[in-house]
Design a protein that fits this description.
This protein is α+β, with helices and mostly antiparallel strands and about 280 residues long. It has 2 domains: about 80 residues, 434 Repressor (Amino-terminal Domain) (Orthogonal Bundle); about 180 residues, Beta-Lactamase. Helix content is about 45%, strand content about 10%. The protein has 14 helices and 5 strands. The chain has a 5-stranded antiparallel β-sheet.
């Protein structure tokens, strides 16, 4: 049986220094983080109880205790929510065998945006729909691909993202925020297995146990035809689903907007690399 709650508490404890927790200096320490007894004392619980939590021998802690530990460990809203989910995981749900699909309305909407890149993710970051400009930026934005697999396993993505290190450091906490607490989900286990075996970068980031649902920001691309692009992104939850609409736009009147116009002209309909889904349908 996994001990996801205990592993998470231990990792976060080890990453918080005594100074950050308001403890006076104690000279040389063998480890930089907090000791178990220090967490217990500052959180107002017994040392034995906290040890049982980390060892997985108490799997039903009260929300009050967990919120106290979250405050001590300086967890933000996303990380605190994740901690509570680990302590009270949902009953494993049997999912319908049919694949997720984006609605026709969403497809029509994003296709109507000539200078805004847009695509739709499913729960596991599978691409369910994308407009022409998004696919022109990267063929891995086409429906049938999985964005997190592409980010870590496709060499072209390192060339496309000028800030690939920053991008990957964002996407792993995002995956953990939306899916990571469901440790019994077969699809999630499969994804994590592939990524852990094939990407040292992913393994390192996943082991940090960071949780962050960052929904807005900016990133830099270097497209082989359009050149450098500075784009702002927004991630919007599609109501009534586990899907997310991701959009990228340029500052009005900027050089990037001009380059997006060039990219739109260069991307003729039909020039889309075969995705796994399209190959499967053809076969």
């Amino acid at each position: 049986m996994t001990n996801a709650l205990g592993d998470y508490l231990r990792t976060r404890r080890e990453r918080l220094t005594p100074a950050e927790a308001g403890l006076p200096g104690h000279g040389h320490r063998r480890v930089p983080g907090l000791r178990r007894e220090e967490v217990a004392f500052l959180a107002g619980v017994s040392g034995d109880y906290y040890v049982r939590l980390e060892q997985g021998r108490d799997r039903h802690p009260s929300e009050q205790v967990l919120l106290g530990i979250a405050r001590l460990l300086r967890l933000d809203e996303d990380a605190t929510r994740y901690l509570l989910q680990l302590a009270n995981p949902p009953a494993h749900r049997r999912r319908a065998p049919r694949p997720e699909q984006a609605s026709e309305g969403i497809r029509t909407l994003i296709d109507s945006w000539p200078l805004t890149l847009a695509y739709v993710h499913g729960r596991y970051l599978d691409v369910l729909a994308a407009n022409r400009l998004a696919v022109a930026l990267s063929p891995f934005n086409a429906p049938g691909y999985n964005s997190i697999l592409a980010a870590f396993l496709e060499p072209e993505m390192r060339e496309l993202y000028e800030d690939w290190e920053d991008m990957t450091a964002r996407v792993v906490p995002y995956l953990r925020a939306i899916d990571g607490a469901d440790t019994e989900d077969p699809r999630l286990v499969e994804l994590l297995g592939q990524l852990t075996l094939r990407s040292e970068r992913f393994s390192t980031l996943w082991a940090r146990q960071d949780v962050k649902r960052k929904s807005t920001g900016a990133t830099r691309f270097n497209h082989p035809q359009a050149g450098p692009l500075q784009l702002h992104y927004e991630k919007l939850v599609v109501p009534g689903s586990e899907q997310t609409l991701i959009t990228y736009h340029a500052e009005p009147g900027s050089e990037t907007e001009e380059r997006l116009q060039l990219l739109a002209m260069l991307s003729a309909p039909g020039e889309v690399r075969d995705s796994p889904a399209s190959r499967s349908q053809r076969d």
